[in-house]
Amino acid sequence: MLSRSKQSCVSKYFPTFLVARQMRSAYSARVKLARFCKGSEVEPLLPEDFQRLKVGARNALSPKHINSPRGRSLDHRFSMHSTMFYSGRAYCRPSRPSLPPGVMLNKCELALVFIAGIFAAFPSMYINDALVPLSTYLPYYYKGIADSAMGWLTSVSFLPSLVVTVLMAPLIDKHGPVAVGIFCCIWFVAVSVLMPFVQKSFSWLLVTRILFGLFSESSWIVQASLIAKYMPVHLESFGFGFCMSISTAAALLCFGTIPPLFSSIDLSALEGPEPEAHAEYLKLEKSILLSYWLSVAIAVLSLVIFVACSMPFTKIDRKARAAREEHLQRTAFVPALPVYINNAILPRLPARPNRSSHAFFLKQLINLPPDFWLINFGFSILLAVCESCQTLLLTFIQVQHEEITSHTVEYFGVVRTLFAVIFGPLCGILAGAVGKRPLLGCITYISITVAFVLIMFLPAWYNLIPMAIIGIADGGSSAFLKSLFSRVVGNSQINIAYAISESFLNVYQFILPPLAGFVSDIFRLGNGKSYGIPLTFTGVLLIGTIVIFISIRRDKSIFRGKLSSRT
């Protein structure tokens, strides 16, 4: 301990010494308390703590140094220190492994994480995107379907996920992503088996799409939870880009398997007043049934692969649980406390908070930082536009250009999906190599906005260029923006953050297709053409660009570039 005279001497020449020592003592006490409360996390210093430290240091300065270079240097130093973990109310967690020390995944287990993450969402993506190539032929099967009706058929599956997705977060916290993923895959198999038996009625097809949508978007939370739980921190951006883009390859599989089923059908023969009496109508119905049974086969195969790849994760969880218990037993004892604390009280404390508590869930839901909402809005808008625009854009291109037929319009969807699959992993590698994720997200927004403008003016086959740009944006959205969630949200709230993100994504995917179809019907020209579909998506993207630009400014002024760092 320093004497009073030495303390006054130290405070004269080093005005921050005493206050800083008090802050370190307070933080040390917080660490000891966290070790005593088994399973708790050590909270970083709060903004008001740094403010007290700054005010105490400034009070120790003489008045002539308040606005001097020395005082400004002191303000800058404390500003840099305070943004290490907190900046205002913006939390930026340090990069640390999700698994406890001593538990490492080998290369084979890492490969299984990638495969399980892909097939957690693959059946959902295939069943959902199978409607895209079918949208060309369904108007011939169900007479009187307008653009708005096709928009509802596309987006109705997202309606139940608006609520169910948020409720899945505590289930993943309690049972783990593997168990929830197996349940979702079984559900997809059951719903896909039901589709061939109800496809004659358009109303029952809508009901089946609603049942499918109960857990369709929950599979993406399972994928994100697998990446966040088992993937190393430096591979997180690559994991999101790779898994989500390869899952998007389900749409490419749809375009490779479904259109050949209809290649021998003469659709011009079904344009009469009574197409049901024509032989081509029976061939069309048979092809639609085969496409639904193909969805059943894909769902069953995905279930088998996901279960096979997820089994080793149970062993990893047991090793992680044992390592965590060993670490807690090694660090829980505090010499200042009675001896019986370590043996009598600590083993009875819960290892983690009770995730089943409704009050705890609501608290975790409400207390998400504002920067998460900004990034989530930008990510959800971008991905919703990329995924929901394809069906309507194919119809728009076919109507606008007479040289594009119902059999050749699928090439535009194939190009979009192919570029999404290729550039998803590449964007993940780029984000991990250079960082700058908010800036890359803003560039993606500007590029896709220009692509929608070009679709309105380019000749027929030149529209492959904007469709390729939309595919690149689809593949890069998760690598650039979704990987930022773990930087602004703590570990205890990350699954809830992913669930809220999927809920917002469902809202936009539910609203945007009917809205674009409605605008297209309103502004239809006399020749039957309308530019309402690309104009609607362009306006939405301009709003998202403004939001991402705000995130870039906050990264520079609040986070001091932490969101743009590589790790």
UniProtKB/TrEMBL annotation:
Family: Belongs to the major facilitator superfamily.
The organism of origin for this protein: Giardia intestinalis
Gene Ontology molecular-function annotations: transmembrane transporter activity
Start and end residues of each Major facilitator superfamily (MFS) profile domain: 109-556
Name of a matching Pfam family: MFS_1
Transmembrane segments: 110-128, 148-171, 178-198, 204-226, 238-258, 292-314, 372-399, 411-432, 439-458, 531-552
Quaternary organization: Homodimer. Interacts with lysosomal protein GLMP (via lumenal domain); the interaction starts while both proteins are still in the endoplasmic reticulum and is required for stabilization of MFSD1 in lysosomes but has no direct effect on its targeting to lysosomes or transporter activity.
Coarse class of the protein's main subcellular location: membrane
Top-level taxon: Eukaryota
Key word Membrane present: yes
Name the UniProt record assigns to this protein: Lysosomal dipeptide transporter MFSD1
Residue ranges that the Swiss-Prot or TrEMBL entry lists as coiled coil: none
Cited function: Lysosomal dipeptide uniporter that selectively exports lysine, arginine or histidine-containing dipeptides with a net positive charge from the lysosome lumen into the cytosol. Could play a role in a specific type of protein O-glycosylation indirectly regulating macrophages migration and tissue invasion. Also essential for liver homeostasis.
